[in-house]
Amino acid sequence: MIINKMKKLLIVLSVAMLLVSCGSSNQGELVGVRKSSSSFNQPDPYGMVFVPMGSYTMGIGGEDINSSMLYEPKTVSISAFFMDETEITNNEYRQFVYWVRDSIARRILADVNPEVYAISESKTGETFDPPMLNWKEKIDWNSKDQDVREALEAMYLPDHERFFRRKEIDTRKLYYSYFWVDLKAAAKKEFDGEKLTANDYSIGEADNGITADRKGAWSNRKQGYTDRSVYVRQEAVNVYPDTLCWIHDYAYSFNDPMTERYFWHQAYDNYPVVGVTWQQARAFCTWRTQLKNSFQSSKSSSLVSEFRLPTETEWEWAARGGDRLNPYPWGGPGTRNVKGCFLANFKPLRGNYLADGGLTTLIVGCYPPNHYGLYDMAGNVAEWTNSAFDPTAYNFTWDMNPDYTYNASEDAPPVMKRKVVRGGSWKDISYYIQVTTRDYEYQDTARCYIGFRCIQPYMGRNKGDNPHLSRVYR
User: Fold this and answer.
1) Per-residue confidence band for 41, with pLDDT thresholds at 50, 70 and 90
2) Are residues 267 and 413 in the same domain?
3) Is the same domain home to 436 and 291?
4) For residues 345 and 426, is the Cβ–Cβ distance under 8 A?
5) How crowded is the C-beta side of 361, counted as CA atoms within 13 Å?
6) Model pTM?
7) φ/ψ (deg, to 5) at 350
8) Cα-Cα-Cα-Cα dihedral of 72, 75, 77, 81, to 10°?
9) What is the pLDDT of residues 194-241, one digit of tens each?
């Protein structure tokens, strides 16, 4: 009898211990705070292709015909990223312009009719101060409401500036205002006895929350700053392309039809956008990031997207397409294929622009892609990069993800505004469409032969097989 009771007691104790052990999630082990069953898989962004991580010898591999000494060879290593398979087209950039136009119009209408065009409270009772714009409500540009018509009249050109009395949006008012965090300024070391100052070529005030302990010596960056808002910069950029760049760049060439039609006419929807400055290209990347993340947050997704311009080394690595020693993106030593056809839109022979199939720009993707699936990495239009231009940049940048960039202020000397341009264009000879050739343009200058494309950093996966890594080590 006593033995049976002891058996029952042991069984009860065993079950109790089992339940206690099952109720503990970590069983006393170091397992982290995220559930082991959770996984993250970054999807391939729409219109982008994967560029694997790798290393290559950056710089010229052949003759430096200009004797410029800008291409001293240097081995660098690059992280993986996604890149637009083509340059940004007129139609894609037009989405940005229309978004800015509509946001300004909604801001005007929110003052006239806040019940319709403004949202002051969410469905959960959260209040917004200032109110948010209501993007679900369509804008009636031909409204019969006199107050609405008069409010929207501020969006149009004044009567004395209208050609043939046509009502046109005043593109001079299409400004996109955005904020960004100057991480480089926040990471700078300080000189004891002085306040840490922001980047000399950024907009912002010095950090007034920093004091020094020792005098007259360099010290490590101090932690626990009192106010991080000093590193938040604000930019306001007019987003409409310079449609007069065709006439400005070629004053003695009849390019009037390109000026009147190239950006807005549907016939040029899939042509690369031109006439955009480096500042406008950066603003587009910020807007694209905002657009994607707003959608992700509406779907309760944890994925945070970031779009930006590629650095100079990222662009060259992508353009090479895995062919580390060849001068052109398609991997060969020349500009023709085995049938004698040109492989890019540039200025072949002795100026026969039509020999390659195009006079000026062409629809993106007309020529075969490189081995990564990227189109027009040579010719069609040259492309902005995020990097600042300096003849000796290869010598002082790091050999892992090299980056030399800054945002020059409006009153900075012109030499500080130079940004690296890569790839060559429809008006360049074959030398300038090589993957190693460096060129530059000023960040506030728009050209009829310069466009851009975006990249998105690759964050990888935290569980399971990674198909992208298999592409790296195949």
Assistant:
1) confident
2) yes
3) yes
4) yes
5) 28
6) 0.85
7) -105, 40
8) 50
9) 444 444 434 333 444 444 443 444 455 566 566 778 888 899 999 999
